Amino acid sequence: MKSIFLATAGLAALVATTAHAQTAANAPDAQENGQATGPLDPSVSDQNDSDRHDDIVVTATRRPERLRDIPLSVTAFSQKELTAKGIVGYEGLARETPGIVLNKPSANFNNFTARGIATNGYGAGLQSTVAVYIDELPISTIGNTTVLDTNLYDVERVEFLRGPQGTLFGSGSLSGALRILTKAPDLTKFGASGLVDLGLTGSDSFRQRYNGMINVPIIDDKVGLRVVGFYRDEEGYLDNVGTGVHNSNTLIDWGGRATLLIKPTERLSIKFLGSYEDSNPKDSSLTSPSLGREKRISDQPDLYTGKLATGNMTLDYQFDGAHLTSSTTYSSFDQKFYVDLANTFGGALPFGLDADGAMKTFVEEARLSSDPGGKIDWVVGGFYLGRRLDVDFNYRTSPALLSAIYGANAGLGQYYQRLNSHTISHELAGFGELTYRFDEKFWVTGGLRYGRVDSQAFTEAGGYLANFFAVAFQNPAAPVAPRVDPYPYSAGLKVSASRATYKISASFKPSASLTTYATLSTGFRTPVVNALAGRASVINAADIIIPDGASSDNLKNYEIGMKGRFLDGKLTANLAVYLIDWKNIQVQANRTSDAVQFATNIGGARSKGIELELLAYPVSGLTIGVNGSLNDAKVTKLSASEAAISGATLGARLSAPHFQGSTYINYAFAVSPSALANIALSAQHVGSFPSEFPRVPGNPAATKPTFGYTDSYENVNATVGVQLDRLSLAAYVENIFDDHSVTYRHPEAFLASRVGTLRPRTIGLRVGYDF
């Protein structure tokens, strides 16, 4: 099968340069569904404004506006662009967005960093600094829960907003927001499409991705249904020497969504959406370089799995002069977080954590926005989120070891500790934003959000703690009777915070082709309660007592920017310069003796930088895109007590590269009067950055053993494609030079395999068809 695949991929590359078929421009269904492999029709010398990237209409301000007119740093992708660039997941979005780093050591282990706002790439126990939304549902939560690798097939648009978005998107958007907007049904015509992606990683890791869509107008202009399904079977490329499994980090991911749109009148529409995704990686992708290339070790597979089910109803009503939107969402997210912890003691004792989580979330947002085009544009709304997260912490060891120290009748199975807990949190907020246009050249915008957040953790009765460590380290000559202390029910400290976030901006448009702006925006994160607050270490009583938690941090972003079109539209440029003050920073640390995670606060940091996006059409059919960012982010305020508990040092760099950038070149050309092919090349550079703060929490004179830097690396990808009427073919190579650079270092010592690397070279073939 794999030999056939290799031959097929080579043949596709040849076909891509010799095929004779209809151009993508003459296949409207293909363009609508994003299957065209070339972003431009070379037979047209000057594209219409609607074809230009900067004329994408986005809703980043909760109102439809042209990308080039909003006073925000936003990178937007249509489905057509996603397909043309081969972007199928978060990695591609990060590659094409300046100032963004994706910390992804393994499948479903996603944590974005924007503009240098991160103290490490993991953020365990902390709310994410970049909010991730699927339509109106925030799916990003805290750093040590899984965030699914959301399928990006048949989406309407993806928007990456940089800088704090607290005014319109709430507490989780401290430094940015990623919005994935799905497509609504077409009420007028039938449509269907499919995309198959087959790839080979290394020599024997086969990747299969299957996607399909069908759109059915049930009642013309009134009722329509759109259904999307997907399935991924991606063989792993790492060998786990602990479990003896070859290619252990295989991923099985499947799911779909169905959207029913009802439009009884021209003014009213009601949309019902149901979606489900089951993402099941069979092992982690973190490696141990000391064992050799593509090797990892754990006593059993480390699992970061997730099952997300979502239901949504969105009601839209068009009043005279204003538009009402009400979105109601309920989601259920079940996850596993199973990890080998034995490296805490250098492998001397086998133990690990099997954590099972279940999160239920209800979100309601209602907003009323003015119709565009007036002297005053406005939006006002309310937001409510209610969430319950249940987590069962089951700490395991070897059953043979338990039997050896306690005897065969200990009755503990393999778990020496079980702690069942749940956390209940709420967020209630009102928000508004108003733009006043003095004239066509000058306007100002002000936004305000005031909200209250609260969170409370509970320990449920029924768990227990055995004196496993005390007995195991004593190494008794004969089995001893276990001491098992039950956990009683207890209610943790309820924390709450009321916060106002605001945004002020002024925009000046000196000409029709240039917009400039200056913005001040703010953001914050919710307080954090430490689950084991007040508890001493059972291994070393002199170690840190776990603090109660971390209060809200806050951030101010000062930004100036410009968005312009030059050379009769053949060049577009977006430039942003920012200065960020981050105060009372929430940080994650780990107690040295037993690796218990906890959250606390430290003084402050400053991040400053420049972001640039260029898109050029120098000749017919040729597109050149360049983006890059320079950033300097470091700790600027720190007390001695904060340094001691967190491991930070004054002047320590935050976890972000000084420089990163990418370039994308696509050439679309007619090989006959009716055939369009294209060749695309992308290259990404990411500079090195520190994995965490350098010192040991509780011992600030010592350098943390896990401290280190990622590699500075380049990742180069290429695609050759062709449109054959409704059929599209593309042969691709990812990581052409098979770069094995370290892109992530885990900050916690309990993992023996702590290093994330680029996926090895992958060659593949994508085949799409529109019916």
Automatic annotation (TrEMBL):
<feature type="domain" description="TonB-dependent receptor-like beta-barrel">
    <location>
        <begin position="276"/>
        <end position="736"/>
    </location>
</feature>
<dbReference type="InterPro" id="IPR012910">
    <property type="entry name" value="Plug_dom"/>
</dbReference>
<comment type="similarity">
    <text>Belongs to the TonB-dependent receptor family.</text>
</comment>
<dbReference type="InterPro" id="IPR000531">
    <property type="entry name" value="Beta-barrel_TonB"/>
</dbReference>
<keyword id="KW-0408">Iron</keyword>
<keyword id="KW-0406">Ion transport</keyword>
<feature type="domain" description="TonB-dependent receptor plug">
    <location>
        <begin position="67"/>
        <end position="177"/>
    </location>
</feature>
<keyword id="KW-1134">Transmembrane beta strand</keyword>
<dbReference type="InterPro" id="IPR039426">
    <property type="entry name" value="TonB-dep_rcpt-like"/>
</dbReference>
<feature type="region of interest" description="Disordered">
    <location>
        <begin position="278"/>
        <end position="297"/>
    </location>
</feature>
<keyword id="KW-0732">Signal</keyword>
<keyword id="KW-0410">Iron transport</keyword>
<dbReference type="Pfam" id="PF00593">
    <property type="entry name" value="TonB_dep_Rec_b-barrel"/>
</dbReference>
<keyword id="KW-0998">Cell outer membrane</keyword>
<feature type="region of interest" description="Disordered">
    <location>
        <begin position="24"/>
        <end position="53"/>
    </location>
</feature>
<keyword id="KW-0812">Transmembrane</keyword>
<dbReference type="InterPro" id="IPR036942">
    <property type="entry name" value="Beta-barrel_TonB_sf"/>
</dbReference>
<keyword id="KW-0798">TonB box</keyword>
<protein>
    <submittedName>
        <fullName>TonB-dependent receptor</fullName>
    </submittedName>
</protein>
<dbReference type="Pfam" id="PF07715">
    <property type="entry name" value="Plug"/>
</dbReference>
<keyword id="KW-0472">Membrane</keyword>
<feature type="signal peptide">
    <location>
        <begin position="1"/>
        <end position="21"/>
    </location>
</feature>
<keyword id="KW-0675">Receptor</keyword>
<keyword id="KW-0813">Transport</keyword>
